[in-house]
Amino acid sequence: MKKVIFRHSAVRMLVLSVSLFFSFNTLVLAQDADIPGDQADPQENVAGPQEGNVEAATGSGDAAAGKSLFNSLCAACHKLDANSIGPPLRGITAKRDQQWLKEWIRNSQALIASGDDEAVAIYNEYNQVAMPPFPQLSDADIDNILAYTSEEKKVPEAKQPGADAAGAGGGAGGVSTDIVLGILAFVLLMLLVILYLVNKTLRRFATASGVELPVGQKRTPIWRSFVQNQFLVLVTSVILLLVAGYAMYGYFMQVGIDQGYQPVQPIHFSHKIHAGDNQIECKFCHSSARVSKTSGIPSLNVCMNCHKSIGEVAEETATEEYSKDFYDKEIQKLYAAVGWDPAAQAYTGEQEPVKWVRIHNLPDFAYFNHSQHVEVGGIACQTCHGPVQEMEIMYQDAPLTMGWCVNCHRETNVKMEGNEYYEKIHSELSQKYGVEELTVAQMGGIECMKCHY
Where are the stretches annotated Disordered (predicted)? Predict the structure, then answer.
């Protein structure tokens, strides 16, 4: 019998690959174990904001309680670090006497009337805008407010290098996911090599033993067998025609449907912050929705009702996607558009038009009246526009197709509470249909002339 060359090569390769695998894995784990303790978890060493280390300049007072009072009584006219209707108040205790501040806060007009030089100077500097008196505030309340204004401005800690790398690691012992995947890929490659060598060795062994290996017979290609079967060709053709017709119908039915349309606006406006976090009612900005066919684009003067005093967002408003700096720059775009100078607290007269991009747009042949739905029907804005209070960027939530509107009219009952307009017709139609509540469709809401005239 002829001796087979490299008969035990497969076993040798298997032993070699397993040895390499364990050696490589041991090396990686050893390197991970040798990481110094001060570098093992960079996130543990990131110094957070130091709270409570700033002593109030007033010597007493609860800064937390003062913050609450400041936000409820002072924030409408004052900021801590920038001019507003009144001057910035951070560090005010270092500039003014504490007793003078108490007199000014309780009754600034009385202090001005007494001829106090500082009081008169401030009054004239800020356009002679009278500060409302707060006689209800006790000495302790004022001490708390002053303690809050005496806190140093917190600067966000810079991210330490390597923090992202530590967060990206995974698995037990801190082994990187990339390393684990690399080891698995190496093992799979070794298995393929081993299988190839085993197959080659077995063929050599069979040849040396005189065993005949099976020879593959030439088969008819599957496509030729398919073509020769007329029944399969007919059935497949019918299925393809049906699928193509269905796809074509679905494609043409989407023409003019912009569901999910989410354009980028010239000024980033977060409905999530305004309608969600701050719970501003939709009709406060879109006031014409109450009395008009359209909801209207709010005037920038509506924005400035609040943003005269709000020149930057709070730190907690920022998200991973949108930073505080991003939101603050968008407010500056608003100021540029209306010509507002936040430092001088006055309009410059230089305005720029804002080219808003329309999102919801019905065809011209379809009539829709906002006031009829919002005021008469009592329909919530979210019914058609989706969860606006959760949208960072506004988009079209509903398809706004004819079928979608008709289904809504078929399923929605007419609200009768305090609505005298519908009382007579509701009474007559309720008897006609034998129901207690009427849908919009039963009151003629799906007649063609209601929306197309």
Answer: 38-60
